[in-house]
Design brief:
Layout: H1 4-17, H2 23-35, E1 45-46, H3 52-55, E2 59-65, E3 71-79, H4 84-97, E4 110-111, H5 112-120, H6 122-130, H7 134-140, H8 146-164, H9 183-190, E5 193-197, E6 208-210, E7 215-217, E8 221-224, E9 230-239, H10 250-262, E10 268-280, E11 286-297, H11 300-319, E12 321-323, H12 331-336, E13 352-354
Parallel strand pairs: 4-7, 9-10
Antiparallel strand pairs: 1-3, 2-3, 5-8, 6-7, 8-9, 10-11, 12-13
The structure holds iron/sulfur cluster.
């Protein structure tokens, strides 16, 4: 529950960022408030910058996780509370200073992630091709991101069932996430041979290129089953209570389909999308809650869909301009989007997008500063961020 001053600041920042007072903006801010906490790492400060007298009760050390899932310190401190006003303030600061880092090195190929990004939203594609994702700049400051920890879990858990088959069947522990729905996948995995794993150090920099499609990809795993058929496995992870209810996002399906159809090294017949959902307990320990698996077969119509998608992206790359149907924007999707902090289109102010993503989209709009936030006899607004 926001105080009246926080409410005023929230509304002021929304208008400065370009949102209008309407149902769309209401829905956006409602969703952003639910997930605001996921941005708390962006406020991380190193221990030597921490003012222990003032900040310690409100800041805690940021933890990361070792391969066994145990939390360990990072030397960085994060605020215990990080709400919707904090997220809006961050975005305001980023936009005012245009402090987004431009990508200078461009690839001549399209990756599976590019196809997924364009499918998710063409604006997302433009931003991802123009600016380094904000989280990466934080990572360079020494903070740790959950993507990295996801990999730790993934690597362990994906093979847990397979490894457990090597002990006596009677001793075999059935993982809690194993259900009748995902059993076929684990059975397939257990009787198959691992051909390629994108997570090993030696394979880390290995990418597969399909010149005719201008495609480059690095799948998580490729297996050969007992019938000598190749299949690919792509893993995703998320905290169960975060994000949308859509278990298998279209963008992830496209990514998997691209591996099935465009990897030329193997004649891949099908693929699995594996979604791990986990929870953290009050001590920060990670517990796997469930595992959802989707199988996609090699199909001509899917390949045609991918070819059309590549054609559209190539067209955008050539014309550098694309129209955006602002009536189709989904406020909840925008609030949860990884490019939310950079994107100006979520305000529904622009009906076309350029490539690269133009700085004009970072424009701040006029809004009167709320009376309630003004200090008597002070020309400077006291609650504005230090920019
Ligand atoms: S915030 Fe919305 S409009 Fe912007 S890139 Fe994300 S989904 Fe697209």
């Amino acid at each position: 529950m926001l105080s009246s001053k926080q409410e005023a600041l929230k509304n002021y920042l929304m208008h400065r960022l370009g949102f209008r007072s309407d149902d769309y903006s209401e829905s956006y801010i409602e969703q952003l408030a639910k997930i605001a906490r996921i941005y708390y790492r962006l406020a991380a400060i190193p221990e030597y910058e921490l003012d222990k007298d003032k900040q310690l009760p409100y800041y805690s050390e940021l933890k990361t996780y070792n391969a066994d899932g145990y939390p360990i310190g990072t030397g960085y401190y994060v605020p215990n509370y990080f709400g919707v006003v904090d997220v809006l303030l961050l975005e305001y600061k980023f936009k005012k200073n245009i402090s987004f880092q431009i990508i200078t090195k461009k690839s001549e190929y399209l990756s599976a992630t590019d196809l997924a990004n364009y499918t998710f939203c063409p604006v997302n594609y433009s931003i991802s091709k123009s600016y380094v994702q904000i989280e990466n700049s934080l990572a360079r400051q020494g903070s740790y991101f959950h993507d990295r920890k996801f990999l730790d879990i993934k690597d362990i858990k994906l093979f847990e069932d397979k490894l457990s088959r090597e002990v006596d069947e009677s001793e075999r522990k059935v993982p809690e996430y194993l259900t009748s729905l995902n059993k076929t996948f684990f059975d397939d995995l257990a009787t198959s041979e691992l051909i390629y794993s994108g997570h090993t150090d030696e394979e880390e920099r290995k990418y597969f290129i399909n010149e005719s499609k201008r495609f480059v990809g690095q799948p998580d795993y490729v297996f050969k089953n007992k019938h000598e058929q190749y299949f690919v496995v792509e893993e995703k992870s998320k905290v169960s209570k975060e994000g949308s209810r859509n278990i298998f996002a279209d963008s992830h399906r496209v990514q998997l389909a691209a591996y099935i159809h465009y990897l030329k090294e193997w004649n891949i017949q099908y693929g699995y999308l594996v979604n791990w959902h986990y929870e953290r307990d009050s001590n920060g320990y990670i517990h796997l809650e469930s595992c959802y698996v989707l199988k996609i077969d090699r199909e001509r119509k899917i390949e045609e869909f991918l070819d059309k998608l590549i054609f559209k992206i190539n067209d955008f790359e050539r014309s550098k301009n694309l129209s955006v149907d602002i009536n189709k924007l989904n406020p909840k999707k925008c609030a949860s989007c990884v490019q939310m902090m950079v994107c100006g289109h979520k305000t529904r102010r622009y009906n076309e997008v350029t490539l690269p993503y133009g700085t004009s989209y970072f424009k701040l709009f006029y809004a009167p500063y709320p009376e309630i936030l003004k200090k008597p006899d002070s020309a400077e607004p006291p609650h504005m961020p230090q920019v």
